[in-house]
Amino acid sequence: MTDPDQRLEQTILRLLEQRADTSSICPSDAARAAYEGDDDGWRDLMEPARRVAWRLVAAGEVEVTRSGQPVGESEARGPVRIRRARR
């Protein structure tokens, strides 16, 4: 895992920890929070944020949802959200 990926993973988990158990975040929330500049360079972190989210799904840490329902990577089209895994 690269350094930006580690930063994104930590950011996703931290953002979720700061929210209610039932809350979710957008991958852009993580990209913006992990980006270290003050311009729109966070957009370059969107795809890495999604990749990191899928790794966290595989690890059982989070779920990726669309319209509030968990989806698999092959089904994730359009806007998605990330939430803590339901245990």
UniProtKB/TrEMBL annotation:
UniProt feature coiled coil, ranges: none
Region of interest (Disordered), ranges: 66-87
Protein name: DUF3253 domain-containing protein
Species whose genome carries this gene: Streptomyces griseoluteus
